[in-house]
Amino acid sequence: MDKTDPNAHNIVSMTEFRGDIGYTALSQVEAYWEGLRGMRLMPKRSEIDPRGIESALEYTFVLERIAPGMARIRIAGSHLSDLMGMEVRGMPLTSLITPPCRRQTSDALEEVFQRPAVCELRLVTEGGAGRPHMDARLLLLPLKSDLGDVSRILGCMVSQGDIGLSPRRFDVVGAKIRPILAPSSVPLPAVKEPTKVDPPEPAKGFAAPETPFEADTPRSDAPYLRLVKNDD
């Protein structure tokens, strides 16, 4: 079990965390969620269309928050039922986790609901009689309910290896949590106001002073006209 401080999370690429092959369903579900949210913090539960993740549907599920650190499975693909050997709808997500690791899983759920954040857990189950060793990845993506609160999660769980005898429960051996921010919340650069320029003062020196125009008042200093006749 990973002894790392659960609160010391790094912002990393989930693709790097799931470097092993065989987890393409997680990438498809995450890409679908990113496409739905667009410029928002997260999409709504009512926007999820199973046709958009049809190729990953058997690994996908939807959680509902019922208490701090607790979420039950509302809808689940067949893969989760195969792991548990029974119908998983209505069961808490921690049913898939071994008891020593359930507190860590509950903390991860609260991070997703409260921050909000995207979380991916790296899981493993040790082999035994009739139960081969298995590796798994669990992806948790926050959703808003129709009331606007963050109380739903779009999840995806993929395991590798033969299931063998069910139920199969997993230890949490790694966790990556990435806080999410809406792209529209990034502040735009400040726009500098244009500098105001005062109009130039009237030119001095050779400039003649302005004389007001008075159309109806004859000028007293204007000379009279005189006809000069020259007979030469």
Please outline the helices and strands:
Elements: H1 14-17, H2 24-37, E1 60-67, E2 70-76, H3 78-84, H4 102-114, E3 117-125, E4 134-144, E5 150-160, E6 171-179
Antiparallel strand pairs: 1-2, 1-5, 3-4, 3-6, 4-5
Report on the architecture of this protein.
It is built from 4 helices and 6 strands; from the N terminus they run ααββααββββ. It has helices at residues 14-17, 24-37, 78-84, 102-114, and strands at 60-67, 70-76, 117-125, 134-144, 150-160, 171-179. It has a 6-stranded antiparallel beta sheet. A hairpin with an 8-residue loop joins β3 and β4 (134-144). The termini are far apart.
**Termini, distance in Å?**
130 Å
- Uncertain segments of ≥5 residues (pLDDT<50)? 1-13
Radius of gyration: 37 Å
Strand order of the largest sheet: 2-1-5-4-3-6
Supply the helix-strand structural class: alpha+beta
- Strand tally: 6
Order of helices and strands: HHEEHHEEEE
Biggest sheet features: 6 strands, antiparallel
Mean of the pLDDT scores? 81
User: Helicity level, as a percent range?
Assistant: 10-25%
The proportion of residues in beta strands is 15-25%
Can you tell me the overall shape?
Answer: globular
**Helical region count?**
4
Give me a quick take on this structure:
The chain is an alpha+beta fold. It contains four helices and six strands, in the order H-H-E-E-H-H-E-E-E-E. It has helices at about 15, 25-35, 80-85, 100-115; strands spanning about 60-65, 70-75, 115-125, 135-145, 150-160, 170-180.
